[in-house]
Amino acid sequence: MSIPDEYLCPITRDVMKNPVLLIEDGYSYEENALKSWLENHNTSPMTNNFLKNRTFISNRALKSLINDFLSHKRITSEKLSREFLSFKILTRRPYVDWKSKPTITIILSVLGPCQVGKTILSQCLQYGHWPANMPIPPSTIGCDLLFYHLSKLFKEQFAVALRLNDPSGQDRFESVTNLYFRQCHGALFLTDMTNPESLERLEQYWYPRLKQLSINPVEVILVCTKLDLFEKQEPVYREAYLRRVEQFATKHQIPIVHVSAYRGDNIEYLFKRMIIQIMENDELIDPLVTQALSCVKQKSVKKTSPCCL
């Protein structure tokens, strides 16, 4: 369930708890954010026009709408979690008779520069962690595609397939990678916690590229990899890196998940969380449901059509 833009404070881009209306410009803001703004500015946060009147009043109607929305969102999220979070992610369809079920295909792109662990993370769903005796895979050339299935029906009606796009992090495959910015419902942005340059590359290229090329709204999670190695770093380094990660995630309102492929830390949780985020986003899930039903209808029409003689 996506959040209406009018429920977000224009200054902080967070959902407003105490919305107030700035009388002169006619826009609503979070009260504390507006007070802080007015202490340092003589202009409107939205129009940038000079303010002759700095008076603001409580917007009780908007606050009521926001509270109703959050209450509905919480109930919907809790219901979905109870009914669906118990699913498992499998490498093949769990039941043969599900072939006749309408199928929702969720597309995830695992994005980031080279050597951050994209391929290992994508394949970890098969094992839960990366086996110690398995060699590290070479850098991806082009894009690897992996397919999984969920063990539980969505809304007791729809089978759910999961396609993982694992495009190369090398600059020379940029034209190929662009396709997977456009065609995804969820994006996992990976940064190597032992390599600050990987976070810089996310900030400067990968995240802006998604915003530039994505056609549909995309759910995003910032994935900090190699947690087991990060824990061996000096405390000063760990503190500085975590601060930078938090700043990036806060700026773009992105949740953070720390993972270790070798220990299996948070691997399953990461993918389940992304799937749930997509299923709670009406702008993403509704078209997928419509498409799945349409495919079933088309197959039915083909079966009932008379053969040409």
Tell me what you see in this structure.
- With 309 residues, the chain is an alpha/beta fold.
- The protein contains nine helices and ten strands.
- The protein has a seven-stranded mixed β-sheet, with helices on both faces. Strands 2-1-3 form a three-stranded antiparallel β-sheet.
- The termini are far apart.
- The relative contact order is 0.12.
What is the annotated CATH architecture of the largest domain? 3-Layer(aba) Sandwich
> What name goes with the CATH superfamily of the largest domain?
P-loop containing nucleotide triphosphate hydrolases
User: Rough shape?
Assistant: globular
In helices, the fraction of residues equals 40-55%
CATH fold name of the largest domain = Rossmann fold
| Count of domain modules | 2
